[in-house]
User: Fold this.
Amino acid sequence: MNTPSSSNICIETVSNAPRELQEQINKGLLEHNHAQLGSELTSRYQPLVVAARNEAGDVVGGILGYMVWDFTHIDTLWVAESHRGLDIGTQLMDQAEQEAIALGFPHISLETTSFQALAFYQKRGFTIAGQVPNKPKGHTWYYLEKDLS
Assistant:
């Protein structure tokens, strides 16, 4: 039997990685998580996309995230500069939170920085669970969470 060794391993950074490579890496992690947590939590993965469109159908804002375990995680919340101040961000977050509750994901998490929307999220009931100073330089990165139950 051939025992693996780090000397047999090639480590590389892959620019423009093909989707198949990304899926293989994610599959490996999901299999590990499944072994640790069982199928009840690990099988409950789904993407979350909430879009805001104007009358012409153009996207003027949206949320990208995913739901897994007991959490909804927001990766991206964006509103076009021309549409800020119209409560679109609030409506997008309301929709995302309603979807999370309806599908049985009682917690929500996200990251933001000091130059983005910390106050907006805190007004919505998010609390700071962690922070990293100087990420990016001169600013603070915040990890926020909220219990929806």
Summary: Strands lie at 46-53, 59-68, 71-79, 107-113, 127-133, 140-147.
